[in-house]
């Protein structure tokens, strides 16, 4: 299959499925066992989902993604992770914190300027993009080398 024929959306959907599943399982376990994971769980979910999508890409196509594919995969998975996380927040907040939590959260958003929230989102986005680029680049090449030589 040539590089032009690769359906990048397929692998973004694979990533999205793993990301949503991992997020559900980890949040249920954390809530059930009353564990405060902080943001460490988000990075673990991102890495695990990225690895799953990258390995599927390598196994199905017999090669690592090209530079263009790597950029598209990283951007698509980044967008997907933000959307799934936002949906997760919309579901989890009323369940865990109750209906009154929305007022508290809106007050929290008002304490910082919109520029600060944008800066925070950009920093997190850049970090996630860097991690995804490493996964679809270096890790996928390493896995492809092992798969081809085996």
Automatic annotation (TrEMBL):
Swiss-Prot/TrEMBL keywords: Membrane, Transmembrane, Transmembrane helix
Transmembrane stretches, start-end: 12-33, 39-59, 71-97, 117-140
InterPro entries: ABZJ_00895-like
Protein name according to UniProt: ABZJ_00895 family protein
Organism: Alkalimonas collagenimarina
């Amino acid at each position: 299959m040539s590089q032009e024929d690769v359906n990048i959306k397929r692998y973004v959907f694979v990533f999205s499925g793993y990301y949503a599943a991992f997020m559900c399982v980890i949040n249920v376990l954390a809530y059930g066992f009353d564990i405060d994971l902080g943001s460490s769980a988000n990075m673990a979910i991102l890495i695990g989902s990225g690895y799953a999508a990258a390995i599927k890409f390598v196994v199905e196509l017999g090669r690592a993604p090209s530079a263009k594919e790597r950029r598209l995969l990283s951007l698509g998975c980044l967008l997907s992770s933000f959307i799934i996380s936002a949906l997760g927040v919309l579901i989890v907040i009323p369940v865990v914190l109750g209906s009154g939590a929305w007022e508290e959260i809106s007050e929290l958003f008002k304490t910082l300027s919109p520029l600060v929230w944008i800066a925070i989102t950009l920093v997190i986005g850049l970090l996630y993009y860097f991690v995804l680029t490493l996964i679809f680049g270096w890790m996928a090449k390493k896995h492809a080398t092992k798969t081809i030589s085996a």
